[in-house]
């Protein structure tokens, strides 16, 4: 059952709804965090760890945003770029599944069931003593000059703060505070980009020709539902459209699964285009089924006609709460109807009905919502316009920001923005999926407004970025990273009585690194010595090694693999140049995949002899895996040798790390 709204120290029910203690939340704090997303939680926890008083306000009932709302297949990009509280969260996820302690070097897990994520967030909030208020919808703000004084909710409660953080997906507090923002897609010319604006491409596109008219071949009969009459503009053209939303479903084949409901307002005609696509030869997949554990999935959009409700979210970014709720209901009705149609409509081939009907909603997730996720996937809404706007150039590594407060590494990713008619056939437009070469820094200036607009507000989610750059940045771990940095800056601004724009970056960067944030790539930690496969010295090879970036989680710009051949001949030696003699802890890194070897021999060689370890590269990818501690002499006398003798799959050589004990 749903828990009544309230305030106090946070605690979660297993369905992801929030329970609250009876104690009243404070209304006068150092920091007011608006938005109970994963970012809001990270910001509030960081503020408490720095000794600040804080209150976390969530406009709805659900806490944790997409991370507890069905998005269990984390869009990590390069997992090695995730530090700070975000990294700690994923290490706690691993510990929750394995019953192991959480340490700075413990493994991370990036796939999880919603209730597990909810429990981990509950631990973080409880440990930090963060007061949480749900159903605290923003009504107005009070400002004096360029400073926010109070946030007033629809219920009339005013929350005074010295600093504020907008952690909503929508950027609502930012807008109320009078900060400049934009929506939609800039044209390529705006920031000299190549992937912005209209993009008619091949991703998630119709692979069979499908007639879009009510009466096939008759334009005068009108268009089928979901097909726009707009003309296709040239690629790169600016418009006000945004990428599609959906719900990230958690599905299961368990015997007690909840069958897909036929929603109120179900209209078969909504899926006529899909039926024609099937009749033209499309057999699926119709959605993803990425396994999270417990026999459950994170199921996302997949293909030309799927769970994305293309073109039905344009009014969401600037809409009222009532208008947004109506849009959310429309998306839920569409997506539930989509699943019911595939599983039940007799016109759908029996093989598809059987396949889809084998899935259902888990009985033990989102129990207060009938098994349906409560969080709409708001992929983009408002985006701030500040003194520094992140663009495609930073994503591609062409421009390196001098003031990074976190790293992003995911593909420049936009879902389709519209469905229209091109040459008499249905076509999708807007999908972009272009990788980035390496993790890149996000500027501090992109998460703070122009000082004249607001001097005590930070915006780590609806930050300043172009549409296509935001498509890379807009990932849950990055939001947590930026929110932790925002809270750190807020505390430093309070301590020095300064606008957030004038926090000395040198001081901020030092504190962020001390708290485990990663600001450089490859990451550097004082005292540690890392030898990467691409290091200019310290690496020698035998046999044939192939460079790759196919599997994320690698250190540096790539990793090497042996092609699953020349076993016993192919080997690679990492030889560090250690500054001091003493005991050094050695950790190895690789990217994991089922095709990897489970029995890779690794020789750690010191002046005292050789110790051989065996590692399983099918697991623990994208993290430092401890091999042990040994006494090394100063200089280059020691080494780590990766061998391929007798291995049962691809062997990866990525990087080795030496940490003084």
UniProtKB/TrEMBL annotation:
Cite the SUPFAM superfamilies for this sequence: FAD/NAD(P)-binding domain
**UniProt GO MF annotations:** 4 iron, 4 sulfur cluster binding; metal ion binding; oxidoreductase activity
Enumerate the UniProt keywords alphabetically: 4Fe-4S, Iron, Iron-sulfur, Metal-binding, Oxidoreductase
The organism of origin for this protein: Streptomyces coryli
- Give every Golvesin/Xly CBD-like domain span: 529-659
What is this protein called in UniProt?
A: FAD-dependent oxidoreductase
Q: Which Pfam families match?
A: FAD_oxidored, Golvesin_C
Checking InterPro entries in the record gives: CBD-like_Golvesin-Xly (IPR033803), FAD/NAD-bd_sf (IPR036188), HdrA-like (IPR039650)
């Amino acid at each position: 059952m749903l828990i009544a709204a309230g305030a106090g120290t946070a605690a979660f029910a297993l369905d992801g709804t929030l329970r609250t203690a009876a104690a009243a939340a404070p209304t006068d704090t150092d920091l007011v965090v608006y938005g109970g997303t994963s970012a809001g939680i990270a910001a509030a926890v960081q503020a408490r760890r720095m000794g600040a008083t804080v209150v976390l306000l969530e406009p709805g009932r659900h806490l944790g945003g997409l991370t507890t709302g069905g998005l269990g297949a984390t869009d990590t990009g390069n997992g090695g770029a995730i530090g700070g509280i975000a990294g700690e969260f994923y290490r706690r996820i691993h510990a929750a599944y394995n019953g192991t302690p959480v340490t700075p070097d413990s493994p991370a897990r990036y796939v999880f069931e919603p209730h597990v994520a909810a429990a981990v967030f509950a631990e973080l909030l409880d440990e930090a003593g963060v007061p949480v208020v749900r159903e605290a919808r923003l009504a107005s703000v009070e400002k004096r000059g360029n400073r926010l004084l109070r946030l007033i909710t629809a219920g009339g409660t005013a929350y005074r703060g010295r600093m504020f953080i907008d952690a909503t997906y929508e950027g609502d507090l930012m807008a109320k505070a009078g900060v400049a923002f934009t929506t939609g897609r800039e044209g390529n010319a705006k920031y000299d980009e190549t992937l912005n604006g209209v993009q008619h491409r091949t991703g998630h596109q119709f692979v069979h020709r499908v007639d879009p008219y009510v009466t096939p071949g008759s334009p005068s009969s009108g268009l089928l539902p979901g097909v726009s009459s707009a003309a296709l503009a040239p690629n790169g053209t600016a418009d006000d459209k945004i990428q599609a939303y959906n719900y990230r479903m958690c599905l299961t084949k368990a015997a007690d699964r909840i069958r897909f409901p036929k929603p109120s307002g179900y209209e078969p005609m909504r899926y006529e285009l899909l039926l024609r696509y099937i009749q033209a030869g499309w057999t699926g997949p119709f959605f993803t089924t990425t396994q999270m554990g417990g026999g459950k999935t994170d199921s996302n959009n997949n293909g030309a006609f799927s769970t994305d409700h293309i073109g039905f979210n344009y009014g969401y970014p600037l809409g009222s709460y009532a208008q947004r709720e109506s849009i959310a209901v429309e998306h839920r009705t569409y997506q539930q109807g989509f699943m019911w149609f595939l599983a039940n409509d007799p016109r759908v081939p029996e093989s598809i009905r059987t396949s889809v009907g084998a899935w259902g909603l888990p009985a033990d997730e989102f129990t207060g919502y009938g098994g349906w996720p409560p969080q709409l996937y708001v992929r983009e809404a408002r985006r701030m316009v500040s003194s520094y706007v992140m663009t495609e150039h930073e994503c591609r590594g062409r421009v390196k920001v001098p003031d990074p407060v976190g790293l992003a590494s995911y593909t420049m990713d936009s879902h389709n923005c519209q469905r229209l008619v091109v040459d008499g056939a249905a076509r999708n437009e807007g999908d972009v999926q272009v990788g980035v070469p390496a993790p890149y820094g996000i500027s501090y200036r992109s998460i703070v407004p122009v000082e004249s607009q607001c001097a005590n507000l930070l915006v780590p989610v609806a930050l300043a970025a172009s549409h296509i750059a935001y498509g890379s940045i807009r990932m849950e771990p990055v939001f947590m990273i930026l929110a932790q940095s925002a809270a750190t800056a807020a505390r430093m601004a309070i301590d020095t009585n300064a606008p957030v724009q004038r926090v000395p970056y040198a001081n901020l960067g030092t504190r962020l690194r001390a708290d485990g944030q990663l600001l450089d790539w490859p990451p550097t930690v004082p005292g540690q010595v890392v030898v990467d496969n691409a290091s200019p010295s310290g690496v020698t090879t035998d046999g044939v090694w192939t460079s790759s970036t196919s599997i994320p989680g690698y250190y540096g710009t790539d990793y090497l693999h042996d092609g699953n051949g020349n076993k016993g001949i192919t080997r690679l030696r990492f030889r560090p140049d250690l500054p001091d003699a003493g005991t050094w802890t050695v950790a190895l890194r690789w990217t994991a995949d089922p095709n990897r070897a489970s029995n890779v021999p690794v020789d750690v060689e010191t002046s005292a002899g050789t110790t051989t370890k065996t590692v399983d590269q099918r697991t623990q990818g994208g993290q430092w895996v401890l091999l042990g501690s040994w006494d090394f002499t100063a200089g280059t006398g020691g080494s780590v040798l990766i061998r391929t003798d007798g291995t049962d799959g691809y062997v990866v050589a990525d990087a080795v790390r030496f940490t003084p004990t």
